[in-house]
Structure formats: C-alpha cells, structure tokens
Fold each of these.
Amino acid sequence: MRQPQVILASASPRRRDLLTLVGIAHEVRPADLDESRFADEAPPVYAERLARAKASAVATVAPDAVVIGADTIVVVDGAVLGKPTNEEDAAGMLRALSGRVHSVFTAVAVARGGAIASEVEKVQVTIRRLSDDEIRAYIATGEPMDKAGAYGIQGFGATIVERVEGDYFSVMGLGLRRVVALLGQLGLQYDFRHGVVDPG
C-alpha cells in the first residue's frame, strides 16, 4: 500500500481546505484553460466538462499523480451565474437569488494516467429575502467577488442561506463523498489516517 502524489487542479482555497479537512495531502496546480460555456450547453454538462478538462490537463503532465478537478456553477431561472465582474454585477446576482430557491451543480473529476472518472452533484439552495442594504453590506465584505453566484456558504454568506437540500460540501465547491467514490472507480482508496492510498 502506497500513497500516490495528489494534485488539486484548482486555485480555490475552499477546495484546498476541504481536502485538508479529511487528511488528503496534496499540492495545488491550477489548470489554465478556457472556461467559456458552449452555446446551449446544459449546466451539469458544462460543469462536468470543465472538471474533466481541468483534471485531464494536469494529469497529462503528471501521469503518475492522482489529479482532482472540480467546477461549481449556480443556476437560477435557467441562467448560469458565474463570478461577478464587478459590484453592480454581484448586486444583480444577489437580487436574483433573494427569497428564491436555486440550483448548484458541482462536478468532480479524478484522473490518473489515462483514466478519468467524474460525477455531478445537484444541490438546491434557498436564499432568504435580502434588503438592498443587506446586499450592499455583504458586497462590502468582498466575499461575493470571487464566487459563483456572488455568495459563499462557508463565510458571511452562511447568514443568508436559509436551506440546503443536498451535499453541503458540494455547495462549498468539492463533494468529498464524490471524491472518495471516484477514487474507488480508479482502483484507489481513501484511508482515514493516510488519505489517498493505492492498495495495489
């Protein structure tokens, strides 16, 4: 039993925190690729394509490593909400989410050598009704500016989330249960004490 090198193909500090939370030692090597959505591409398909592309790009140059890629998108009324471009954009997103239920799709991909496995998790999130003053105050914290949908469930945004139906960690950006399942599909195991292990 040995511990392979694990690489997170993402610059997200939340994803790094989650892997550290469950004892998976890793290094960070973000994938540099075009994340534009294709015309008429369904949200879950878009998320999974990007997660696989991130993992594959890094696995190509580190074929012996276990590479984890992920992508999270927020969808309301069929519109995909990415990271806000400015404070006005963030305010518009938060107004669209206020008092509403929206969907969060988080795709996770695990690659090693020429093999890759991926899955998508859908979570329903309800945001409580927000006043314009609350929206302005939340944006002033700076938290919404680097997050899809302009909110972070693990920070100040925890105070505006009314309900989560599904995997909380997927809303944060990395479904840990999915990671463990995908490792298993590639013949690897998650060990509580040692993280990712290769039993072969």
Amino acid sequence: MAASVRSASATGRSSAVSSSATRATRDAKRLGGQRRAVLALAAIVPLLILWYVLTSVTHTVSPGRFPSPHDVYQAALQISHGNGYAGGTMSRQVWQSSKLVLMGFAVASGVGVPLGLLMGWSRRAEALINPAFLLLRPIPPLAWIPLAILWFGLGDGAKIFVIWFAAFVPAVINSHTGVRNLDPTLIAAARVHGASPPQIVRHVLIPGALPMIFTGLRLSLQASWTTLVAAELVGAILGLGHVLIVASLDIYPGMILYAMIWVGIMGAAMTKALGVVEKRVIPWRS
C-alpha cells in the first residue's frame, strides 16, 4: 500500500514537472515572438522616418524618382474608392493576383513534390526523368511567356502556367533532396520488419522528407509571387502586376510603390500561413 502511495506521489510530481516544463517552453516561445516583433519594429520604424525626411522634409529625393508617404497615401485613396485604378479597386486586384498565385502554387506542389519523391526513391525513375528536368531547370519562367500565350491564350491559364513553372523547380529539388538525405538504416529497418514499399513510402519516406519538402514549398511560394508581375504581362486586365505595369506607363511612382507594398504583404501573409501548416504537420520541428 505504501509503495502504491509512493508511486502515485512520484507520478503526480512527474506530471507536475512535465506540465511546468510545457508552460515554461510555451512562455519562452511567446517571449521570443515578442522580442522578434520588437526587433522588427526597431528595424522598420527608422526606415520609415528616413523615408519621410528625405522625401517630404528635406526633398533630397525628388517625387519623380521615389514617392513620398503622402504620394503613396493618395494612391491608396485613389485605388480604394470608386472604380479604383487599372480596372478595379485594390481588393479586386489583390484577389485576382492571390488566386493566380495559389492556383499556380497548388499545381506546382501537386506535381513537383510527388515527382521529387519518386526521383529520390527510385534510381530508375531518376535516370529517366532527371535528364529532361536538368534541361528545363535553367530556363527562366519569362522565357515561357510566348509559348504560354500560344498554348493557353491570353486568359488565366497562361499566367498560371508561368507561375507553375517558377514554383515547380524548387518543389522537385527539395523533395528529391529530402528523400536522399534520409538515413538508409531507417529504410533497411522498415524492410527487416516486413514493411511493404507503400508502407515505407507512407511511414518512413514522406515523414523523413517533410522538413525539406516544406522548405521547397516556401521557396516555391516565394517564387510564385516574384514571378507574378511577369505572369500578368500576359494580357492581364486585373491584378497587382497589372497595376504595376499601368502605373509605370503612367509614370505614377506612388501607385507603383503601393502595389509593391501589397505584393510584399500578401507574400509574407501566405508564407506565414504555410509556416502554421508546417507546425501542425511536423510539430516536432517547431
């Protein structure tokens, strides 16, 4: 009876220690996030002040070369009300660009990740696919615009294709690298215990490669946004890239910078959302 009481007491103490450690870890992460936010503000605020001083106070930088905060504010007002600018309000422009980026990214991920896993898992598949991939890999996404127009016309299909190609390459390379970096003894141990090839892929290959897969997905998402402006050269009537093109023709620096800010905001927001998904899928890495 005394032994049982001591065991229960020890278990209670262990649970309390574990709970305290969990709380301490959670508090440390929250404090770390707050410190990062403070450092980010400490880096951004001086740049904003310097921008205001150089463009609005001392006029060291002329409005024709770089817009002042007031110019950007006026551009924001113009595109946010009435008919907006370049065919629509900012909400419509952001939605159109986000839709294209997400569709191109989804197709690239759905094709590139399985292809990279296959090439990493099978030497025969790599020998068959890799020569063609090595030929396509150096071609910049911009070079595909003429063919994209011929194949898909001037609609969204051509734009999605250009974004897809930009996002496809990082997804393949990192998925392939993730499989190749796996410890071979893990796969050998799974085979010794009677795991079938599908079970090895599901329970060893994919979980082991997930960190590199998500690294590739982040790079793919960033490539999608950096290719957006080029993709929207293909007969676009809406989108952030279209706003940038029209504003450059109108020599409208305030609108150019405002559209660039929105590209940065949406790219950062989507990357943050992907990071949340990554923490849920592979919590042991967070």
Amino acid sequence: MSVKDGKDFLYLIWKAEESRKQYIIGQLTKNGQYEFQYCEEAQDAIADGFTPLFCFRELDKVYKDEKLFPVFSCRLPDKKRKDIGDILKKYGMDEYDEYMLLKRSGARLPIDSLEFIDPILETDGKMTRIFFMAGVRHYLGCDGEECNDTLEITRGDEVFLKREPKNAYDSCAVQILNVLGKVLGYVPRYYSKGVCKLLKDGKKITCHIYNVDKSKNCNECIKVIMSIY
C-alpha cells in the first residue's frame, strides 16, 4: 500500500485525448475518513482539455466525507452482482472493500479517461506495481496497425529499465528494453519519477511481461509487473 503520514493514498490519472499525455489530477486518501483534492498537474490538464469533476469544482479545496465519494464508488461493480465473487478473486480479494477494489482495479470506465493508480510515494521497502507499458506504438513497428506482425513479446519475458535523463518531455523518463537492448516503450509518466529515484538509489528492480493482448488498443496491449526489493 502507498501510505504516508498515516494516510493511504491513491492518485487519480486523466489522459488527454489529443496529446495522449497522462496527468496526475488528484489524490484520494483514506485515514478514518476520505479526502479528495486536486494536484498541481490539474491546471496543466485543464489547459489540455480536462474539465474538473462536477462534484469537485474548486481546485484548491480539500473535500472530505465519512464514506467513499459516490462519484468514485459508482465506478465499482455492485456488491450484489451474482459474479461479484469472481470479480473479487480476480483482484486477490476475499471480501468486498470499496477502497481496496478501487486501488486494485483502477475503476476505469469506457465513458471517460480517468483511472486510479497505486502511487510510489516512498522508495524504501518492497513493493510490486502492475501497469500498462507506455508509448509502445512508436517502438513495436506497428504505429497502431498490423499489431500481430510486430515484435514478438510473450508473457513472462524479462524486461529491463534504463533512465533517459535527456528526454525532452520528461527528465525522469524510464525506458523499458528487451534482453537485446531494444526499446519497447516506457514506464508510464505517473510512475517515472518514483522509478527514476529507485534506479538512482541502486534499488533492485525486476520487471517481466505480465500480459500481452495485441487486440487491445496501443495503451493497453502490454502489461508489465515490476517488483522492487
């Protein structure tokens, strides 16, 4: 879990339709009560097309509630669903817990570009993160088309991380390479700062391909599991 100062954190990510850039627009915390507030990147996201959530119109306000905000809980499957046991099993859960399900599922919907992620707040201790590799359309030789004819990547393949400090868009950019040193894509921007620091500090990190589905769009075709020791 991402705990800091006694609070468990989740970041709310928004992806711009035009620029395809991902912004950390807000943070949700839990410590006896729930709190939501926008992050600094919300202003940049607004300039890129983001509209503040209807129930959270004020950018500088900290919103508080004893229960999980309805705008977030409604993104989760109903606990009364007949297949809820299978859904919980999918996310390694024994019982229904709204916050934990939000954390593990990301609560993505097809109607918008919002997603919750478990952030990297501290770089000490063991942790595991699973994420979709960013930027693959530019490196697999498909540009979003003829996906089945691209570079062969298989579940379980080990991949490697390499900092790219001269990246024009993100000085904390981290490349993901295969065993031959070919760039496959990048660590998503919302994790790049934390992973960059882990690499600088010499932490042991192992990464493997968690899933490959070339029938999905380029944002979701390759999933990586990263373990930090």
Amino acid sequence: MLIKRRRGWELPEQEATPESAFLHRRALLGAGMGAMGLGLAGSALLGGRDAARAATADPTSDLYPARRNPTYTPDRDLTPERDAANYNNYYEFGTSKYIAPAAASLKIRPWTVKIDGLVDKPFEIGVDDLIRKVTLEERLYRHRCVEAWSMAVPWTGFPLRDLVALAKPTSDAKYIVMRTFLDRAQAPGQKQFWYPWPYTEGLTLAEATNDLAFLATGIYGKPLGNQFGAPIRLAVPWKYGFKSVKAINQISFTAERPKTFWEGLQASEYGFWANVNPQVPHPRWSQASERVLGTDERRPTLLFNGYGEFVADIYKDLKNERLWA
C-alpha cells in the first residue's frame, strides 16, 4: 500500500484554494436612466465589451484551468488574486508596484519566442503553438522577492526542461539566457537609458532542467494577466523573484555565463545565482524574515525558500561561488 507522507511545511490541498474573482468588474450603467435607455445602452455596452473581449481573447484559454500537480504544496494559504494582481515589479512599465494599468497596454498577440545559440537548429515559435506542444499543469509555488515580501500563487504552465528538450542544445551549451521584449513605444520604462534593456536573466542548464524550473503561461486558473509577465514568464521559486523574467521572447543557449539585468546594474547586491538564504542579508536590509503579501504577517525566511530538498544538490560542488544575492 502506498502511504503518502506529508512534509512538515505542507498544508492540505483543500486549504490552498482562495481566489478572488473581483478583478476587472465594471458598473454597466449609471443610475437614473429610463427603461428604454437602459435596455439600449446595456445592449450597446455588452456588444462593445464582447467585441473587445473577442479581439483580445487568448487562443489557448480553453486549456485553463489545468490539472494541479500536488507535489509542491506551499506552507500557507494562497495569496488572494486581488493582492497578487495589484502589487507587481515590472520596471518596463515603471517603478511603482501598481503597474497593472500601464502593463495592460502591452500587445501580447501575436507573440513569438526565438530559440537560438548552441542548439541543433535555431527556430522561432508562436507562443500559442508552443503552449499546445506541451502539457499544462497548475503548481502552487511560494514566491520570495529580494525586497523581503512574499506570496503564494497557483501558476499554470510547464517545466522549463520541456522547452530545453524541444530546443535540443548542443553538448557545448552550459547556460540558458532568457530575454524579454524591447519596445519603448509600449513600455515607457524602457526609455530610462540607464537600465541595460532588454531585461535579461539566466540559469545553468542544471538549474533549467530541474523539475522546479517552470515556464508560466497562466495564474489563478486563467491565462496570465499582463502585469504577471504575459504571455510567458519564468518561475524559479527557490531564487529571489528578480530571476523570474517576464514576457520572454528570446531563449538562447550559451557556453558562457551571461551578465544578467540586475547583476549588470549592481553586482554587489544582485548576483547571478540569487538563491534565497535567510542568513545572508542584502547590503541594505535583512533577509531573515519576509512580509506576507496581503497580510500584516511576517514569517521566517527559509533556505532556498523552502525548496532545498529539490535543488540543494545542484550547488554541492560550487563552494567557491557566491550563491546568495
């Protein structure tokens, strides 16, 4: 008989299900209108809304919600959607956390992802074609920002290793480099010339092929909202959040370690590895605890954000590396 032993930090699946459906609601009509005016205005508004929705519909929306993978259950309730959706770092659209309205302007269809570098044959693929080549699943992951706040969210997507297999890297490839879009007309933050745009992040192939490394295309049972990094982003929950690059449109395989976005700006504070460690403070604040988004709670930070049993072996022979941001 198979006996499943629950880890000490797990909670029952049924407790990890809160989700708010309040976003993007509108009042359809103002008060004081006559019955005929109400009906006509209501019909026009609904027709316009349906047309707008059809024009921006995600061609893969039929794949959501996806089956949940129960392997990675967080040690807390999920963050309510309203909190996660309205508190985002996305420097392409500004330095405020409340960038959802600005990010909504990004056109995410059509969207292609270029695969190049040390691969068998470079190619480009439409994000919708890519999504239908893989099997989507939902995973409940903790997310720990380097700024010492955290959340727990239900990503939908697929393991990054599935894309690595599709790319067929050569034996010389040691790193995977991910870049986001570069479009100053759509992303006003990219007009700030002192940032090294486009946003670039990287992993070793050992990290990229670990099962935890995840390419997210949805959240809360729906396709990603723009503020989360639609149409496709990285989620590596054992690392600080700045490693999880948003709106990916190029993935390259290289033999040399890349210079990543924040590492290029301030390497003493934001290193290549950026693994979570409560014992290693940021130069300007402690990492020993974290503020749980949407609450007044502070929790002790966990080594590797609590995922050490899955990833610690990757680093056992890297004793001379600066593994912690």
